[in-house]
């Protein structure tokens, strides 16, 4: 999972530090740096993909608590969440009243930042799991077939149709559908496209080389256009310390 975020702070040094911390965190993507909360509101409107805000509290014009109140009253379906950053711990209680994910007291280290980021990742993972479909419905052999998504090993494109390979089932399910369409139907937190012709279930990968991943008995190739996706996959798949 990649969490799109913004950093909001009227202190240039603090803003650059948070931006640097975000860049060092594999699952975070910095959309913008904002020197005021007013600017941040505009950025949120222009970038609906933003889900997380690292937000200073004491700022001119519109402070962080006021900003959080505005966001909290907005479209909750976006699930924008806030990590407060401030040098004044008396704001901690107000921050928790606004359902902040975390509260970082300046000056904070990268380790402190990482703990807050991991809490955000855990939150959004749980949120996504609640919204994820459990089944994929396709037409195969003139029937509407319900496939348990948790049983999918990988999906292969065969020009005008796809083959869906499942656990404990020797023959794949064949259906007239493009790989792009099935990619949109599968939860992105559990599946990754590493080749123009293949989508694999992340938790079904048992081994990895520089050019392929092993899923069941199949070696799925990794093609050059998907190297970035492969790199992101490796960061999430590899166990800490390995």
UniProtKB/TrEMBL annotation:
One of its GO terms (molecular function) is phosphorelay response regulator activity. Keywords: Phosphoprotein. Residues 4-121 form the Response regulatory domain. The keyword Phosphoprotein applies. Pfam families: LytTR, Response_reg. PROSITE patterns: HTH_LYTTR, RESPONSE_REGULATORY. It comes from the Bacteria. Coiled coil: none annotated. This is LytTR family two component transcriptional regulator. It comes from Mucilaginibacter gracilis. The lineage of its organism: Bacteria, Pseudomonadati, Bacteroidota, Sphingobacteriia, Sphingobacteriales.
């Amino acid at each position: 999972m990649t969490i799109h975020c913004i950093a909001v702070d009227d202190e240039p040094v603090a803003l650059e530090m948070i931006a640097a911390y975000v860049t060092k965190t594999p699952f975070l993507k910095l959309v913008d740096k904002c020197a005021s909360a007013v600017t941040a509101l505009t950025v949120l409107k222009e970038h609906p993909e933003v889900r997380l805000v690292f937000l200073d509290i004491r700022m001119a014009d519109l402070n962080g608590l006021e900003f959080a109140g505005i966001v909290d009253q907005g479209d909750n379906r976006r699930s924008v969440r806030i990590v407060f950053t401030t040098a004044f711990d008396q704001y901690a209680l107000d921050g928790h009243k606004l359902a902040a994910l975390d509260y970082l007291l300046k000056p904070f280290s990268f380790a402190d930042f990482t703990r807050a980021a991991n809490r955000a990742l855990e939150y959004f993972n749980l949120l996504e799991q609640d919204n994820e479909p459990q089944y994929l419905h396709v037409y195969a052999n003139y029937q509407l077939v319900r496939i348990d998504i948790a049983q999918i090993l990988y999906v292969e494109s065969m020009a005008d149709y796809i083959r869906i390979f499942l656990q404990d089932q020797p023959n794949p399910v064949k259906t007239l559908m493009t790989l792009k369409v099935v990619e949109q139907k599968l939860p992105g937190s559990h599946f990754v496209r590493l080749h123009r012709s293949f989508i694999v279930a992340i938790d079904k990968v048992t081994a990895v080389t520089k050019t392929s991943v092993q899923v069941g008995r199949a070696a799925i190739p990794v093609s050059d256009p998907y190297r970035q996706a492969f790199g992101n996959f490796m960061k999430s798949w590899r166990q800490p310390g390995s």
